[in-house]
Amino acid sequence: MCRHLAYVGPAEPLGALLVGPPHGLYRQSWAPRRQRYGTVNADGFGVGWYADGDPVPARYRRAGPIWADLSFTDLARVVRTEALLAAVRDATLSGADAEAAAAPFASGAWLFSHNGAVPGWPGSLASLAATLPAEDLLSLEARNDSAFLWALVLARLRAGDTMGQALADTVAEVAEAVPEARLNLLLTDGATVAATAWGDTLWYLARPGGGTVVASEPYDDDPHWQEVPDRTLLAASRADVLLTPLKESLT
Predict the structure, then answer these.
(1) Per-domain residue ranges of the chain
(2) Buried-most residue among 7, 173, 189, 243 (CB within 10 A)?
(3) CATH code assigned to 3-249
(4) 187 within 8 A of 152, measured Cβ to Cβ
(5) What own/partner pairs with CB < 8 Å and gap ≥ 24 does 159-163 have?
(6) What metabolic or biological pathway is this protein involved in (predicted)?
(7) Is 137 a catalytic residue?
């Protein structure tokens, strides 16, 4: 379910990363090339980006398909950023949360997205609810598995975990409770990107002109795209990408 993308690097218009590429996230909303589950990502979309001098990102989210929002196309043409996280959504279950259920989820400088699904939600993760403060549960932005996963990750970040450790430990905890869960998580603070490949596709591109893209699938046919092996933690900056098998990162 879903497709997402994060970028850190030299300033680019949103559209150059999301709309312009021949197989960009915009096109992936109706014609993804490598999506294993679901076929159309029309249940909402969102983009979060960082402006110069402000560590807290802005977000633009909608409940409908990205191709139906002409205002976004215009916005994407003129807004430039050095970092973003964007997603198009294929809902696991129907719900009434509208744009609140669309990634990216946010807190402070962090932006988060989930590509995947937790079968049996919400009952399958009921045991993990007890690990969160009541205030966190009552503050969930939406009533879906992705919002709950974000609450688990955010609790770890607030406790002082690095982004990579917060993702890795959350994946380990949820996978133990629901072994068939698909948990491709994506997180950025505007300077670095952390992601997990767990049950679905993940790729990265270290662009020759500078900058790093991490995405569910390549947005063009550039031969420099590299696929991330399943069960892997990715940590990326503008210049470097580090891959760590999740089984090793959890020991």
Answers:
(1) 3-249
(2) 7
(3) 3.60.20.10
(4) no
(5) 162/194, 163/110, 163/187, 163/188, 163/189, 163/192, 163/194, 163/235
(6) Amino-acid biosynthesis; ergothioneine biosynthesis
(7) no
